[in-house]
Amino acid sequence: MSCEGLKNQLNPVHLAHGYAPIYPYHYYHQPDILNATKSILSKNWLKTPKKLNTYLQQNVFSNVLQSAYSPIVHVIWCDGGSFTFVNFLSVLSVYKVFTPTIVYLYLTKEPELDPDGYYQFLPDLERDLLPLVKVTLTGKDICGGDIEDKILAYLNLLNSHGGIAINGRTLLPPSKNLKHFFENKISIATNEMDTEPLIISAERNVILDTLSKQSLSTFLQSSLTKYLKCGTILSMSPNHICAFMQEELFPVNIFNKTSYFDHLVRWVVYGTSESRVSKSATQEIVPNIVHYVWLGKRKLDFFSFLSLQSSLHVLKADAVYIHGDVQPFGEHWDQVKLNTRVKFIHRDFPNAVYGEPIKLYASHASDYLRADILLRYGGIYADWDVIFLQEMPLDIRLHNTTANVDWPETGAFPDVFNLGVLVSAPGAPYLQYFLESYRWYLDRHWSYNAIHMPYKVYEKHPQTLNVNRHLQILCALNKCHAPWMDGYKQETIDHLKSPDLHWQTDALAIHWTHPDPEEFSSKEMLLKSETITGEIGKNVLKKSGLI
C-alpha cells in the first residue's frame, strides 16, 4: 500500500463518526467494588447517589463465566430510520450489565445518518465496543409477528448461541432481581402493559425438537420458564428488571432529572447516577476581560466600534484584547485604541487545524481561535456583532464555561449552541474537549465544527458546560429571539417587541447574526433612529460619554 493510500485511510476527517471522547472506562466493572460488602438500596437513595452507584455496580451480572448461559447478547433493532439514543442505551446497558464476549446487533437495514450528523450513536458504539458485530436480520416474525411469533423467533435465535436476546428499545440495568433471570433454562421479561416479549434468556440448545406456535405454551411450561415484568420510563423502579423505552429520548432529557430511570440512564452513559450539570465554584473563576478575533486587513466599522464600547462601558471589562494578524484602521479604531484598556495582540492567521488546512471558510479560524484563546486566558469571547447590555452577573463568573442555545431548528439536534458569546475560566475542561473535537475537522462544512460539534461535546461531557439561556438574545433576518421565552425557535417571532422582555436586565448581550441593523451603519443613523435597536445603541453611546 502506498503512503498516500494509507494517509487517506488514517485521515480522521474520513471517519464515520465525528468525535471521540476520552475512552469510557466505566463500561467495564470495578473489581474493588464488586468484592466489597454488598450494598442495600435504601429508601432515601435519591439523596445518596454515591450509594446508588455502589449498589448498581455490585448488581451487574458478575458471574457470567460460571453461568450455564453463554456470554452472548443479541440486540434486535426493529425501528428503522436512525439509530437513536434509546437504541444506544439498550445496547450499552446490556453490555455493561452482562459483560458479554460478543454483542450481535441485528438490523433490518443499515440505520440512516441524518444530514446534520446528529445520530452518531451507532458509530459511537462501533468505536468503543470491541465485541459489537452487526448482522442483517432476515426473518420478519421477530419484529412484525404476533407475541407467539416473536417468542418463537427469539428462542430459535438463542437455541444455536444461547445468551440474551433483547428488544432494541429496552434498558437492562443492574438489579438485585437480575440473578433470578438466569436461574431457569428460559426466562422472559415482558412489557408490564401486555405480554410483549422484551428480553428472553435461554441456555444453548434448549429446544430439542421442532417447536411450533401450537406447542409453544406446553414447551414453556415444561421448561419451567420464569416470567418477569419490565417497567417504563415513568414507572421504572428497583423492583423491575428492565424498562421499555417507547418514547424518544435525548441525553439532555436525563442530565438533572430525579426519577429512578434517569439515575439508571446516567449510570449507563456516564458511569455515575449523579446529576450531570455544571456546578458553580465558591469564588469567581472567570476574569472580567473580553476577547475579539480580527483577521484580515479591514477598517473598523461603526457597529464593531459600538461593540467595543459596550465591552468597555456597559460590561465594564477590565481589559479588551483584540487578537488578529493585522490591526484594524480608520477613524473608529483611532478613537478606541486611545483607551488604555484596549490592546491589540498580534496573532498569525491559522491556516490549519491539527494539520487539516483551512481553505473554504475563513470563519473556521475564528471558531477555533475563540476556544484556544479562552482556554489560555479565560474571560468572554464576543463576535463583532454583539452588544453587551449589562455587567457580567456573578453566577456566570462562577462556572468553568457558559454558553447558550441558538434559535434555529437544526435537523434532529435538540438544540445547538451559538458561541458568538462564550464565557470561560482559563483551562476549562469543556474547551479542551471542544478543541479535541477539531481532530475531526470538516473544512467543507461551515457549521459542523462550529455549531453541531459543540453540542455533541456537551452531550458527552454535560457537567463541563453551564447552559445559560439568558447569555444572549439572538437576532437574524430582522427578528430577535430570546431563548428563555416561549416560541424562541419560531422564525416569525420577534421577542424584542414583546412587553415581557426587558433588554436592559434580561440578558448579558444581544447578537445580530445577519443582517447588521441599519441603525448601526453610522452614528448619524443611530441618533436618528427611534427603534428598540436604536435605544440599545444609544445606551452604549451614553454610557461611553459619546452623547
Topology of this structure?
Elements: H1 3-10, H2 31-34, H3 49-58, E1 72-77, H4 85-98, E2 102-107, H5 121-128, E3 132-136, H6 141-144, H7 147-161, E4 163-167, E5 170-171, E6 186-191, E7 197-202, H8 213-222, E8 226-232, E9 242-244, H9 260-270, E10 289-294, H10 302-313, E11 319-324, H11 331-336, E12 342-346, E13 352-353, E14 356-357, H12 363-377, E15 379-382, E16 386-388, H13 394-397, E17 401-405, E18 417-424, H14 429-436, H15 448-460, E19 466-467, E20 472-476, E21 479-481, H16 503-506, E22 509-514, H17 523-528, H18 532-543
Parallel strand pairs: 1-2, 1-4, 2-3, 6-8, 8-9, 10-11, 10-15, 11-12, 17-19, 20-22
Antiparallel strand pairs: 4-7, 5-9, 6-7, 13-14, 15-18, 16-22, 17-18, 20-21
Can you give a write-up of this model?
This protein has a nine-stranded mixed β-sheet. By secondary structure, the chain is an alpha/beta fold. It has helices at residues 3-10, 31-34, 49-58, 85-98, 121-128, 141-144, 147-161, 213-222, 260-270, 302-313, 331-336, 363-377, 394-397, 429-436, 448-460, 503-506, 523-528, 532-543; strands at 72-77, 102-107, 132-136, 163-167, 170-171, 186-191, 197-202, 226-232, 242-244, 289-294, 319-324, 342-346, 352-353, 356-357, 379-382, 386-388, 401-405, 417-424, 466-467, 472-476, 479-481, 509-514. The chain folds into two domains: 67-248, Spore Coat Polysaccharide Biosynthesis Protein SpsA, Chain A (Alpha-Beta Complex); 289-543, Alpha-Beta Complex (Spore Coat Polysaccharide Biosynthesis Protein SpsA, Chain A), CATH 3.90.550. Helices cover 30% and strands 19% of the residues. Mean pLDDT is 89; it is low at 1-17.
